[in-house]
Design a protein that fits this description.
The chain is mostly helical. The N and C termini lie far apart (46 Å). It has helices spanning 7-28, 34-39, 46-57, 60-73, 79-82, 85-101, 107-114, 117-150, 156-204, 209-215, 234-251, 253-260, 265-278, 281-296, 306-314, 319-354, 360-381, 391-412, 421-443, 451-472, 478-481, 504-521. It is globular. Helix 3 (46-57) packs across helix 13 (265-278), helix 6 (85-101) runs antiparallel to helix 22 (504-521) and helix 8 (117-150) crosses helix 9. It has a single domain, classed as Sodium/glucose cotransporter (Up-down Bundle), CATH 1.20.1730.10.
């Protein structure tokens, strides 16, 4: 195996691995109970929450996939990033107070309280499957791809196992607190490293935005695309992207778990809004460099190779190590979050209900064992992703199957108080079955509608199923929905007598203005 990076860069990366493991070891000494392992003792402040949300979401698959998509089809896929502020605002307004007031440990627990155990088990099972087979495996695959570029001849599956072992080690022993603290460090390194790369790529084009625009296809910097656009057609921008975002930021255990570990509702909301601001950054330091690479490296067959190529051919010695450390941090921050959330779901939703008298120390032991097993499952599946057409499309198409019915039972379920357990159960069963059918038909060439538009179609169909079945069956009791649906005072909870600049509603308005400005700019 030969390396195309210097010993200095390699030392920076190795040093980063060591620092992360040391942090995990130190935190593991205070991680003793199930709540410590899964929720960090409910002690997280807004800064840690916001940085951890950003780092866990910005995986190496995001960097590689978005840069590659920007190179091949333009920056339209960046809408998944900077438009995240909208679903994050919905989470802060409604779901954060509902979750924290009910002191749940997993999001499926909320469904058990709101509907019944059937919905909890189905959603939990789906979440574990997608988190391990899509999120974790996707991050490991992208990470192995990056390292192969820097170290030609590096075996794919052995590399995936190595990365899983690093992330799994500190996650197994340190739990969510180790995940969140290392995520905060990883977020800072990632932003700094990618910013340096962006500035230097821009320098190759004389720091001239006019030069950038002149060097790429005319529609590369437009987000409103025609109906047949392979990236995000305009109807998908309106219906698909927001629904995918809502599921991801409000109902995905992999992401929401650090919010559940907040020390208060206010800190949770501030952290969520901070993440919304941070999510605007990738457009400038991850997506636009991929689009600019069209003029620097025209004709590349594999868009996923764009970002590693920019790193090795543009950055000087030392800076390559910094950016590579950022990429490694992106891998680890996604894998650690996914492993911790999946083990939480298995232990809390499946093992604990059947063994209600388990001691906290035993729950923590089960959590560590499941983390260890899931770590290897994801590592062994990761190499198979190379058989799919593009990492980003693989991930989004997998999500588009499950998102619509889940979004319905959460988003419609908190407002439609007549919704019941039967409605939620059959919405999940029928909605997901139809999503799988449309996916298969699409692979066979018999269904040509873009997956972002499929999300909207399936959401409408699932809404009809949810409302229809609920109206045809017995309504839930008032006691059943108490504190689990929208109510007066939910949005203003915790804001009493608060200075204006700490009010998350003020911060929310500023975030909306920034998102609107980007939308107008990229129209």
């Amino acid at each position: 195996m030969q390396s195309i990076i210097s010993n200095v860069d390699l030392a920076i990366v190795i040093g980063y691995f060591v620092v992360v493991l040391i942090i995990g070891f130190i935190i593991s000494r205070s991680t003793k109970t199930g709540e410590d392992l899964f929720l960090g003792g409910r002690s997280f402040g807004w800064g840690l929450i916001g940085l951890s949300l950003f780092a866990s979401n910005i995986s190496s698959s995001t960097i590689i996939g978005l840069s590659g998509a920007a190179y091949t089809t333009g920056i339209v896929n960046s809408v998944y990033e900077w438009m995240s502020g909208i679903p994050l605002i919905i989470a802060a307004l409604i779901f954060v107070p509902l979750y924290l007031k009910n002191r749940i440990t997993t999001i499926p627990e909320f469904l058990e309280k709101r509907f019944d155990r059937r919905s909890q088990l189905i959603f939990s099972g789906i979440s574990v499957f997608t988190t391990i087979m899509v999120d974790t495996a996707g991050a490991l695959y992208a990470g192995a791809l990056v390292l192969q570029f820097f170290f030609p001849g590096l075996p794919l599956w052995q590399t995936a196992v190595f990365l899983a072992l690093i992330a799994g080690t500190y996650t197994i022993f340190g739990g969510l607190k180790a995940v969140v603290y290392t995520d905060a460090l990883q977020a800072i390194i990632l932003i700094v490293g990618c910013t340096v790369l962006t500035v230097m790529v821009f320098g190759k084009l004389d720091y001239s935005w006019a030069t950038v625009l002149a060097s790429v296809p005319e529609d590369h910097f437009s987000i409103v695309r025609p109906l047949d656009d392979p990236g995000v057609p305009w109807p998908g921008l309106i219906v698909g992207v927001p629904l995918l975002g809502f599921w991801y930021w409000s109902t995905n255990q992999y992401i929401v778990q650090r919010v559940l570990g907040a020390k208060s509702i206010n800190h949770a909301r501030w952290g969520v809004i901070l993440a919304g601001f941070l999510k605007i950054i990738p457009l400038f330091i991850m997506v636009i460099p991929g689009a600019m690479a069209v003029s620097l490296y025209p004709g590349l067959a594999n868009g996923d190779a764009v970002f590693p190529m920019l790193v090795t051919e543009i950055l000087p010695v030392g800076m390559i190590g910094l950016v590579l450390a950022g990429l490694v941090s992106a891998i680890l921050s996604s894998v650690d979050s996914a492993l911790n959330s999946s083990s939480t779901l298995i232990v809390i939703d499946f093992i604990k209900p059947n063994n209600p008298h388990l001691k906290e120390e035993t729950i923590a032991k089960y959590g560590r064992i499941t983390t260890f097993v899931l770590m290897f499952v994801a590592a062994l599946w990761a190499p198979q992703i190379q058989n799919f057409s593009g990492l980003w499309n693989y991930m989004q198409q997998m999500f588009s199957i499950i998102v619509p019915p889940i979004a319905v039972i959460f988003l419609i379920g908190v407002f439609f108080k007549r919704g019941n357990g039967d409605g939620a159960f059959w919405t999940l069963i029928i909605g997901i079955a139809l999503g799988i059918l449309l996916f298969i038909l699409g692979e066979m060439g018999l269904w040509s509608i873009h997956f972002t538009m499929n999300v909207g179609i399936l959401f409408l169909f699932s809404t009809l199923v949810f409302i229809g079945v609920s109206l045809m069956t017995a309504p839930p009791s008032k006691e059943k929905i108490e504190g689990l649906t929208y109510q007066d005072g939910l949005i203003s909870a915790g804001m009493e007598d608060m200075v204006w600049y700490k009010n998350y509603l003020v911060q929310m308005v500023l975030l909306i203005i920034m998102i609107a400005a980007v939308f107008v700019w990229l129209w």
